[in-house]
Amino acid sequence: MSDVTTQARLADGIRAVMEDIVIAADGLTARVGDQEVSADYPREMTRVLAEAIYNVYHAGQPLSAVPSRLRDRRIEERLRAVTPQRTTSAQVRLVRLAEEDDRAKRVLVSYRGVRVWMPVDGVDLDGVGPGDVMTVPFPALRPAVSPGYFLVEGARGWTRVAQVMRLYFHLPAVDVADVAWGAVLEHLENVSAPYRAKILTVGEFYPRRDALVVYTEDTASDLAYDLAERLAALDVLADDTSPFARRIGPGAALAMEPRDQASAYSGLSFGQHRATLLATALLAAREDPDDREKEVFETFAQHGVDPTAPALNLSI
Fold first, then answer.
1. Which InterPro entries match (predicted)?
2. Does the pLDDT value for residue 66 go beyond 80?
3. What is the pLDDT of residue 316?
4. Number of CB atoms found within 10 A of residue 143's CB
5. CATH of 87-139, one of 2.40.50, 3.40.50, 3.10.20, 1.20.1070
């Protein structure tokens, strides 16, 4: 986290994005790079412009990039083959004691608010009753949780911490996905890092600046640089990174999960959050272009973002 003063300067990457966006006087049409977006109403325009900023500058994709599918099981199998862990350490709440059915003994548990049946094998039920919390081995591979991505959790487990750091890796093509994925997970498991990671599984999405994303603790900056160096040595990264994130090497960047208290911005990912703030500020300043930088600076700061380093949150 960081502090900011009124004498500070808006981050160069954000200023460059601003120069690339032109908004019509009525606020319902805008040019984003070499593409045009429009809407019928101001609120809709905020959403449309934010999506365009997210796609073009954060993800690094053209607005017209619409995949024909969200899963590719052939790619998923390649990723599964290089994933070193099959289970993660998870905390669950016991709902119902084990029962026998035609297939196997199983137990009903609540995992992150969702009730699921799981096999009793490997679960110590001695002295445990309904309502008690247990630590159990749980499937680590989640191929359909995040649309378009193959997601896993580390063997050590993943519990969302107060401040999450995202690591972004820009992969140029799906052909290198399994190489990059295997290298990243191998290193994370070797150092026993707590993490969640996901990678794009559909070739039509590539290249993308967030093709591979790792979520870990905000104190893991050394780990971030280690992963960036490891992937750079394998020559599997494209160069560009999101202007909202902090570049740590070719095709590699880090950012802190948003901590915005405003209800309108809750639930947004890092890229969506920054893109929405920028869109909101640019539309607010459309009638006075000279105030654009001031409006963006103040909007970022009001929502807990360091305007001088938008990958970071302000101290609170």
1. HopA1
2. no
3. 57
4. 17
5. 2.40.50
